[in-house]
Every structure is written in C-alpha cells, then in structure tokens.
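so the lab meeting is tmrw and i was supposed to have these ready like two days ago... anyway. pasting both below. for each one the top line is the aa sequence and the line under it is the structure tokens. i havent really looked at them closely yet so no promises
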Amino acid sequence: MRIKRVEIIKYRNFENIVIDFEKSKFPDVFSIASKNGGGKSTILQFIFIVLYCFNDSERYIYIDKILDEYKDEDEGLIKFIIENNKKSYYLNMNFNLIYGLPYDTNMSEELLERLSDSVYLAVPNAQPLHFLSETDDRSKLEELLPNFSTYDFPTEKDILKSFDNAKEEDFEEMRVNDRYGTNYIQFKESLKDFIDGKEIGESRDGKRIVFRVQGKNKELLLEDLSHGEMRKLGIYIWLRNRVKKDSIILMDEVDIALHPSWQYELVDNLVKWSKGSQFILATHSPQILSSTYYKNLIILKDGEVKRLNQAPLDRDINIILSSIMDSNYLPERLKELHKNYTILFESGQIDSKEAEVLKLEILEYESENSSFFQGIAFDRELQDI
C-alpha cells in the first residue's frame, strides 16, 4: 500500500498543488525540504489525519479540528491516487464535515479500512499538532490514535516485546510449515552491531535486556545510551513493534540527535527495518537529502512544489544546502569578505594592500586551499592565457 499521488485543492497556504510519489528502482523513500514554516509538517499531519481518521467515526473529531476553518466550503479538498498490488485507485475527499469526511472512490470498503490502518505518523515530542486544541491532553494521544508516535525512547519492555514478537513469528511458521522460522535469530543478529561499540541482547531467562560494551563483560543500563543511540533504537523498535508491513510511514524531523553518519545511512536503514513500506520524510538534514534519490526530493517554496529535473551538481553538503534547502552555508561575515575580495580581483586589484588585508581576514575562517581561493587561482590562470 502506498500513496502514488496527492493533490491538495486548498489547505492553509497550499492551493492546487500536486505531489507525485512515483515508484522507481531506488528506495521508496521521499524527502520533503523547506525553510522553517514552509509547510513540511503541515502536509504530513494533513495526509495522516484525513487518511487515518476518515473511515472511523470515533476519529472524526481530529478531522473536525484540522479542518475547522473550512466547514462552510463546498469545493474539493484533497485527492489521492493510492497504489495497491500495482493497481491504482482514486480517493477524493470533500470539505463538508457533517457526516465525517465525504469521499468518492473506487476502492472497496475492505481496502479503505486497510488503507486507514496502514498510515502512520511519527513526530518530535514538542511538535505543534494542528489536529489538537490547546486544552487537549497530548499524553493520551498515542492511546487514542495508535498509529501516531512521538519518537519516545524505548523502554526495556519495548525491546523485550520485539524479541517476543520474533519468537511468535517463528512459532507461527512452525504451525504452518512444521519447522521454526529464523525471525528470532535474525532480530538477535541485527542488534549485534546496531550501535557502534555496544552489544544488545536478551538475558538467558528472557526477562531483561543486556547492554554491554563490545569486548567487555561490564553491563550497561538502557539509560547509559546516548540521546542519539536511544533515538535510533527507538525508531527501529517502533517500526518492528507497531508498524505493519507494506505501510505508508510519515516521519517528521527523524534526523534529530542522530550522528551525521547515521543520517546518511537512514534512508537505506528505514527500508531495511520495514520492508515493503513507503516512507515520506520531512527533514532539514542535508545528509538525508543527499542520500535520497533526486527524483524523490520534494521542495516546498512559497506554497508551491518544486522538483529537480536532474541530479544535483554534487552530493557535497554545501551544494545540498544551497541548491535544495535554499540556505546559506557560509557565515555572513565570510560571505561579505568573499564578495569584497572578488570585486578587487575582478577590478585588477588582487595584488593591492587592501586585497592582502582581506585575504588575511579570510584565512581566519578557511585555508588557502579552500574552494574559494582555488577558484580565484583558476581564474587568474585563465587571465594569463
């Protein structure tokens, strides 16, 4: 189950925008980039609430809150193309909220129910939520909306549940095939090098989780793990314990607290940790954006959707920051120094005292082998030809 296309007719600062999620040979992971306030989180929450809540009357209250300002509208709201088993279906939803969220579709009731159950959203704890009022109790939200998560750190009970689930999967295979599966062994092996320099395992009696520094017998507590290690493990355990296979998984700021090398690995890891699922990520991480297939990059700017027509010039972080994230990657003072030095060069004053002083100040920020000075040297050579 996956979203193939979404068209937002009108919602907040978006009007008549279309986002295609075409599947390719590359990982089924799409990354949304924008400046703060560009609408990344808004789109993820909007998609989650309408798809997760439209088919359950007990969840209409969340649709009502997220669409409160549109109650009197009579035009279309959002249109989906949903893909299941390589077949495409349409699902169009309207503003009229008297009876929940009216829709028009060629999907069966069974498929609609499966769609709702296959949509998940994970956000940081402090993320503002458009589908809650200021008086709503956030602490009960994951109980009321089981497919919603706030990246909570895993407890020992959560990790033990993963071991128990793997054992149950092996037992189910025994019932069907008269031989035990290998899910428990695979899960145990997956944790061996999960966190750099540390081992994670189950005690002999299966009643607790054991953490050790690799090569040492001294045990660690779960609390001894770093923030980033806890976050990475929490994402993995959430995907194993609560997310069904072949799902649509929306994740906001999934990169928080992760080391840059783990951010680079995240796209491949998510696919490996939840096989068959589609991921739509909202992120500020250049590492995640650089490891996302360029046709899967979605750039939001001024209420519009931008896509790349070709691969970025380079996967260098600075290129990603400037070309995709529309962000400056140099300190403002250094940019000004570069500008003034370039003006002197272009006016033939590169050997002046003023240029010498500027160069010394630039060297307080970067070496003489920096790309800026290499560019100046190359241009000087061209002038001498």
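ok protien two:
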Amino acid sequence: MLQAMASIIGIVGGLGPEGTVHYYRKLAQHFAATLPEEERPGILIDHLWIDRFARLLRAEADDEIRLLLSASLLRLHNAGADLALVASVTPHMFLAALRKESPVEIVDLVEETQQEVIAAGHRTIGLLGTRLTLTRPFFRSGFERAGIRVVVPDEDGMKHLDGLIFGPLASGTKTPQMRHELAELIRGMTAGEKLEALVVACTDLMDLIDPKYLLVDPIDCHIRLAARTLARRQRRS
C-alpha cells in the first residue's frame, strides 16, 4: 500500500495561467531536488479566471476580489491543502484580509522578496509589474522603509506593462517585439539611474528581459519560503 503524502501545497492559480505553470514547474523541480520521494508534498491548483480578476480590479471591487480569492483558498483547504500560495503578486495586496478568514496558512511572497533584497544589500532597485504592484504600498513600502530606492516605469510604461500582463501575456503570447519594447522601457528606467537589481514582480515578464540585468524573481523567494514553512510544519507534527 502506498504511504499517504505528509502534506499538500495548494496554489491559487490562473492570475495569469502562464505564471501558474511557472509556479507549478518550479515547485515540482524544487521538491524533486531537495526531498526524497516519500517526503515530497502533493500539489493542488485551483484555477481563477484572469479576465474576471482584471475586470474586478478595474472596477475597484475589492470586496468581490477578496471573496473570489477566499473561495479559492477554501476549495484548496477542502481538497486537503495544508499550505497555500497565491501564484501572482498583485493579489497580495489583499493578503492581510485573506489571512483573517482563510482556513489554510498562506505563504507571503511580498515580505520574503523584500527580506531577500534587503539581505543582498541592494540600495537601488528597479521594479516591474502591474500598475497596482508598482503604485500601491503593499509591495514597495517594505523596500522604502529599509532605505532602498525603488525605480518604476513612467506613466506610459506602467500603462504598457498593464496592457501586456492582462492582455497577450495572459494567454501565453510572447513575441520579439514585446522583448524589444520591454528593453526600451527598462532603458528608460535606467537613464540616469544605476540599478543594482531588477525585481520582476510578474513571472510572465521574466523571459522577455535581457539576462544582463541582475534579476530578482519573487517566485523563487516564495518557493524557498514555502519549503521552509512546510518543513517547520512537518517538524511540529
């Protein structure tokens, strides 16, 4: 008889789908490389539709968004998840509220990314992501409180990124033209600035960026924290 898996990680996915695939692949690779077969967790994904999420964001329907995310966390809990990851940066603006009602522990991408950047000693970073990630305090304020200068695109750049993230990238479309446009956007951010690292707070952008930049992938930070949290929970059990 097969031994039951010790734990299950749940992913709130779909926001967007390509990022969720990236999360799944990296989680599976991480645990395959670090744990013996019998100790690896199960992985569940609950899919939310990005077009609905984007519509609610545009309408500033925060209560409906929280209900949408909370319902996903509840489904993961009911399916047996012991730990949950929200596989997108922007929904973390609702993390404090979600934690108050979630039946499953949620791993915080934001704080872990901030701590890794601070520990690396960076003093000036670039930040890419959705308009809300770039402008709301939930992501960038932790850097700024630590004395780190955060450089973001100008208004046209933010509009362009939002169009990419909620448009073609959400359906998996990537082209050389997108890569060129993103390079120009980053070049504008670095005019007169010396960026020590570029925090790419949207997975779908990662492989469109010239690797000459020191890239910080919040997903990597998130997965490392999830693994540590899972190990801690298993030691307690």
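from a quick look at the 2nd one: Confidence is low (pLDDT under 50) at residues 1-5. The chain is about 50% helix and 15% strand. will dig more after coffe
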